[in-house]
Amino acid sequence: APSDQAGASDLMQFTAGTGTFENCAFFGFPTIASGGSQSYTTCMTDIASPPSGVTGSIAYSTSSGAKFTGITNAAGDWRIGSGSSLGGVGTSDATNGATDISGLARPQGSNWDIGAWELAAASNINYFKFDIVY
């Protein structure tokens, strides 16, 4: 949830059934889920007392902890930056996690990143040089 979005409630609400979550980043909500039965593997959140399988109390910030690019509704950019606590600590998942939300191959380093976005390795970033002629 964007940090400037007032009144956020549970991220997910189940009436019955089971949810299975792996390598998920849950930030900006007071609770992750209610109802039903959920299992979590290698997930992170800013919630102080998260369910089993979720590491809690990670800073929901652009400068520390998760180090998202932006956390407000206006920014709308939840990619992680270099040094993020979500980087390189995910569980390998060749079946379901071969690419991130943008189609970037996972992993870019030695292991998957947690969350929808994989941090691009330096070798996958294109740099352009422009010569300005006056």
Question: How would you characterize the overall build of this protein?
Answer:
By secondary structure, this protein is an all-beta fold. Helices cover 0% and strands 16% of the residues. The chain is built from no helices and 7 strands. It has strands at residues 12-13, 18-22, 25-26, 33-34, 37-41, 43-45, 54-55. The strands form 3 sheets. Strands 3-6-7 form a 3-stranded parallel beta sheet, with no helix packed on it. Strands 1-4 form a two-stranded parallel sheet. The protein is globular. The N and C termini lie far apart (47 Å). The model has no long low-confidence stretch (mean pLDDT 84).
* Span of the ends, CA to CA: 47 Å
Percent of residues in helices comes to under 10%
Strand order across the biggest sheet?
A: 3-6-7
Instruction: Indicate the mean pLDDT.
Output: 84
Low-confidence stretches: none
Strand content: 15-25%
Kindly state the number of beta strands.
Answer: 7
Class from helix and strand fractions? mainly beta
Shape: globular
**Sequence of secondary-structure elements:** EEEEEEE
Number of continuous helical runs: 0
The main β sheet shows up as: 3 strands, parallel
Query: What's the Cα radius of gyration?
Result: 17 Å
Q: What topology does this entry show?
A:
Blueprint lengths: L11 E2 L4 E5 L2 E2 L6 E2 L2 E5 L1 E3 L8 E2 L79
Parallel strand pairs: 1-4, 2-5, 3-6, 6-7
Describe the structure concisely for a colleague.
By secondary structure, the protein is an all-beta fold. Helices cover 0% and strands 16% of the residues.
